[in-house]
Amino acid sequence: MIAGDGRLLTILPAWNEAESIDAVIKEIHREFPGTDILVVDDCSRDATAAVARSAGAKVVRLPYNLGVGGARRLGYRYAVEHGYDIAVQMDADGQHDPRYIRDMVEALSEADLVIGARFAGEGEYRVRGPRQWAMRLLSMALSAIAKTRLTDTTSGFRACRGELMVFYSSNFPVEYLGDTVDTIVQAKRSGYVIRQIPVSMRPRQGGTPSASPAKAMVYLFRSGLALLLALVRR
Amino acid sequence: MRLVFVTGTTGLIMLVVIFELLRRRQLREKYGALWLLVAIAVLPLAFVPTLLDGFTSVLGIASGLSLFLFLSVVFLFLVSVHLSWESSRLEEETRSLSEEVALLRADVAELQESRERVTTP
């Protein structure tokens, strides 16, 4: 096992990802054979669960759609109940490159939470307009809170271990954006160490993006609200 | 007089509806009791709208009905906040239940698989 740290679970929350999930699972197995893969099927209407199972992943299927935050929380709960030591959370659409899992798990030896950051030098990922302002605002605020430079706080590519995983299994914020912003604030407030490592993003292999440019202003507003709530929450 | 007729019948209909819902066990007792109390407290005012005027003149409010309107807005606000709180809590509870169901089904599937492996070597 890399980092000599015991069992590792890769969590893939998936909603209608039947086209891409097979390739994603196989690539993770090829790049990082030491990990078990859990697909949290968020009540897809297509064959996501069946495809994932035949590709060799463990599957849990939610009885109704809970959103990506809810699916992730279930993933962490599964990891804790089945005695895993490390959990890596990725997107199921193939945007995250499993080659970086190794680096992230290694970085966990000095941190409790490792974020795979898209703007930290590697790759070509770019966004513009209000969405970019929102991401900048969040990054600046959260860097100050976490006392370390965080450039991509909304990244869904992250790894955590031990106690923080247990904490997430019952406290992972399930609301939109809360799942990305709140986790960092909560983690920091509970005294965990956060690091980021640069990763490059790839185009999606299937499915449709969950946000359109028209929703960018709403995104800006909601991220501000999510940040505010995260800061004052008990 | 016509005004009293309108407010009076409205109050009575409200009372009957709540009572009927309670009788058919469609309302939890705590909500039923709350609305019954409100209906009973308000009903005299529906028939005699000037009932509060003596009290409000002491407080410096021109009409008993404006005090009543003010209090009902405050009351309805509190009730709707309470209901939002309650529904947030319910959502969290059903969420935990759905997680539980998903985990249990995964466990059952795993058990079934391992049993099939034992019975069909």
Explain this structure to me?
The complex is a heterodimer of chains A (234) and B (121). Chain A contains 8 helices and 7 strands, in the order βαβαβαβαβαβααβα. Chain A is 43% helix and 15% strand. Chain A is α/β, with parallel strands linked by helices and 234 residues long. The N and C termini of chain A lie far apart (37 Å). Chain A has one domain (2-232): Spore Coat Polysaccharide Biosynthesis Protein SpsA, Chain A (Alpha-Beta Complex). A 7-stranded mixed sheet of chain A has the order 3-2-1-4-6-5-7, with helices on both faces. With 121 residues, chain B is mainly alpha-helical. Chain B is built from 4 helices and no strands. Chain B has helices at residues 2-23, 29-47, 53-59, 64-119. In chain B, helix 1 packs antiparallel against helix 2. Chain B is elongated and about 90 Å long. The N and C termini of chain B lie far apart (89 Å). The chains are: A alpha/beta (234), B mainly alpha (121). Chain A binds chain B through residues 40, 58-64, 66, 70, 73-74, 77-78, 81, 174, and chain B through 95, 98-99, 101-103, 105-106.
